[in-house]
Amino acid sequence: MQSNINTSQPVYVAPANPAGRALASALTSQGYNVCGLADNLKHADGIINSHAQSKPDAMVIICSGPYTHGVAKGLIARGFSPNQLYTSVESESLATTQAPNSSPKGGTNLRSTIRPYKTPISEKFKSLRFTLFSFTIKVLRSMVPQRGYVYYAEQFFDTNMLLAYRQHRRQHPDEPWLIGRDIKQDLTMLDDDNHLLRLFSLQGLWHMVRAKKMVVDHEFTGNTFTLFRRFIPVIQLWHGLPYKALSGNIHYPDICDDAFISSSSWFNEHIFPTIFRARRYLDYGYPRNDVFSQLPQERDWINAEPLSTLTHIQNTTGSIIVYAPTYRDWGDNDYPLDLDKINEWCEKNKRSFVLKFHPFISRQFGDAMALPDSENVQALPSYPHLYLYPSGKNIYPWLADAETLITDYSSIAYDFLLTQKPIVYFQYDLDKYRKLRGHTLVSDDLFIAGELVFNTEQLLTVLFNIIGHPVSRPCATLLSTLKINEDLSSPQIIALVKSLNQK
Length: 503
Fold this sequence. Notes:
alpha/beta, Rossmann fold, seven-stranded mixed sheet
């Protein structure tokens, strides 16, 4: 522990993720004056994003991990001095990690050793290498003619990206290129696509340098995307109408994308300009939502479980109900589902209950159910009416045939409005959610378009009423209020991608 650190000094902990929250709690218990969390991206009560928001003489303690240097770099870019930054290392030795001005309490517990942050030589070398890379790209970009279009992603190609790219290739086979960096997902579905490239291949870099436009559907924060964004007009598809707070890119004053796409002109007027920078906001819709106005045979089933499997389940155990909750980034993702009661209800009412979890939760749930690793939908052992849908696959072609959607705070609810079918909001942890997530971007009356339930018993009662009796469906009202586009999205987006760049 450094002797010049005083526990009365204001402290912020970074980043605002489960590990950071745990560290903040531990430091508070050790007597530190923890004032809140610091994060480069997240906005919520108790989280600061810049030095201007911090208290005088504050220090920032970064939770040690593989992301430490990236967090430090982002904090420095937001006005924090390198001298304000510290890192935390857990230790069991009370004698060496005792907080200043505190008394030993005896026993052996995990405590935090706080050390000044120092940029390692390897990071300095990376910075120099990237400077040279940036100069090379800038020179090449000014010399070579522009040709083709890039659909770009990092770690994972989401559904909107794949669908827009495939529509573009169907219309103009030689123009688009699907380019990814550090992609972790299984891409065997695209094995026969010779326009799928890795970024740091010569061919991938060449097409990035020459691209007329770049299409993305996330806000990537790495140096490479930030660099190319300076030179290539960006069309941001994003990935949904948000209920919970988002960081966007408004805190980067040098960013202004060519266009931002959503499915709602109301969101484009009232919400997205406050968190994203773009020259224009267009309500062309999301490519994944095209399935809601298409027959099963017309849908693009890329990265989805096949129609034959869906049909088999419908014929065997009944019409499908989809449960698709959002991910709890504070770490508590134990969904309180009474599987016995749900399976009994489904068997009695001839329904199939399809679970679509976040990848992290899907793995935990599969292990708890003793399911083998599989990229296919699986019936749960002892629960023949309950199915686990692969977390990395696109469920929207199935969602188009779902009788009901059950969700909580997820933007999938806005998409499902297009079906004008019932939505049930299973918000079993509403108080905790509001406390930990902070304010939402929209009020509940602009999000809830169905029944709100808090436990399995209420959920099953509402589901019974939905299938057994005519119910009021406020989906049409919210569709009208939010001015959600119901037309096919992909053709409009491809026309935009190919349009002349805006000055």
